[in-house]
Protein: RING-type domain-containing protein
Organism: Gossypium raimondii
Amino acid sequence: MNWILANSKPCPKCKRPIEKNHGCMHMTCTPPCRFEFCWLCLGAWSEHGEVTGGYYACNRYETAKKEGTFDEEEKRREMAKLSVEKYTHYYERWATNQSSRQKALADLQQMQSVHLEKLSETQCQPESQLKFITEAWLQIIECRRVLKWTYAYGYYLPENEHAKRHFFEYLQGEAESGLERLHQCAEKELQVYLNAEEQLKDFNEFRSKLAGLTSVTRNFFENLVRALENGLSDVNSRGACSRMGSSKSLGGGSSRGRSGKGKGSTPRSSGSNRNIDDSGH
């Protein structure tokens, strides 16, 4: 109903909703009505012409818009349009993280069934020493689930709570950049070792990097969930943080702007009653 309200207008005569998807402002209602009207001001087309702006403009509409004399229907339509745009914004990002999570699940299965055995042979490492790769992918999957539902949280966060919204968007941005860093390391950087035909000397350095990113990301996401559970209580009514370095307390390290260094991770799927259920609760 919001979409219909935002993208259609009622015929001034028969009141049927009409969608305009192309063409000029001269509208003709379908039979049996056949009323001709201006799409912008909804006035009879017989009263329009070159003086009012021709086929692609309407001076009457522009004047009413500047004077703020929109009728209630037009105001409702504008509000509905904003509502649809807001929903689309948050839903698209929710769906993107959902599809990324599904792909990560498939990549984990491929890793466990095919790649780990080959990697164990080329890098001369027992598979028990490659658990850090599996742990990284499990963390990515969990983070995608949490990040997905932060967009539902953001959708329902009251618009008038500006300080909380800014704080939430900062935390969400840091979480997203940290997760992307971990995901890239586990996917792109690991590929070098999966494609190698012989042992590479810097594999242990890669192990330390990936394990470190996994730990940092886990820590940040656990604290992100805790902050959301508490209703972002670190932000008081005046828009300031209630204690020094609230973003640092979430990350467990130094805060360095959007880079998210020193921050990191999502709730473990086992044993935490803070987990957001995948069904949406």
Summary: The chain has seven helices and four strands.
